Amino acid sequence: MAAVEYESKDDGSADLSKTPVFSDETVKTIEEHESLGTPLQTSWTFWLDKAVSGTTVEEYKQNLTKIYTVNTVQSFWAVFNNIPNVNSMQVKYSYHLMRDERYPLWEEPVNQHGGTWRIKCHKSDTEKIWKEMVLAAIGEQFADCMAEDDEVCGVTVSIRDKDDTVQIWNMNAASASRATILKKVYSLLPNVNFSDFYKPHQSHHAYGRR
Predict the structure, then answer these.
(1) In whole angstroms, how far apart are CA 125 and each of 49, 74, 165, 166?
(2) pTM, whole model, 2 decimals?
(3) pLDDT value at position 23?
(4) DSSP 43-100
(5) Mean pLDDT computed over 51-72
(6) Which of 117, 142, 99, 104 is nearest to 200 (CA)?
(7) Per-residue confidence (pLDDT) for residue 100, from 0 to 100
(8) Which candidate, 116, 95, 97, places its Cα nearest to that of 106?
(9) Rounded Cα distance, 71 and 78, in Å
(10) In this predicted model, what pLDDT tens digit does every residue of 18-60 receive, in sequence order?
(11) Nearest to 147 by CA among 183, 176, 110, 185
């Protein structure tokens, strides 16, 4: 049972339009894990957003909801297990897990020269792919798959009408062709069928505007 308070929609899914609020007990547990848990190599921040066409970059940024920044393995699980499962999310919503506290924005200076590997998947596989990718990210399992001047800096899961999309963010689009990250993804998901491609942030038609 998720320990984040959300209203329920008529179809039983969580109404993610409301700001997530962890229970006092859950916050206490997370804080204990933050002080006593096994440190991650860097901190990671959970974000939530809803895709709204026609918004400016600044409006999109203002509409992002920061859920929590985690610094340990145990606090990651405390947050991950206490937010609504991706299978209960409505269409157009996305979760992001970003390195440090960077925003999941293409146009941010720290992100603008990067891009994403996009994994288009059946809804029955979305939960498994999202979980495997965030675990690989926080465990730095992609480090050996990247060019020396590049790194993975985020993972996104986006719920859409038909197939869903999981994205793996990197910092340097110019180095993406030298990465072996998809080989790693296939090894982590040997029995899952999906399609994939890479897209630099600046090649999006909506880059600089939403």
Answers:
(1) 21, 25, 10, 10
(2) 0.90
(3) 85
(4) EEEEEEEE--TT--HHHHHHH-EEEEEEEEHHHHHHHHTTS--GGGPPTTEEEEEEET
(5) 92
(6) 117
(7) 98
(8) 116
(9) 11
(10) 445 688 898 899 999 999 999 999 999 999 999 888 889 999 9
(11) 176
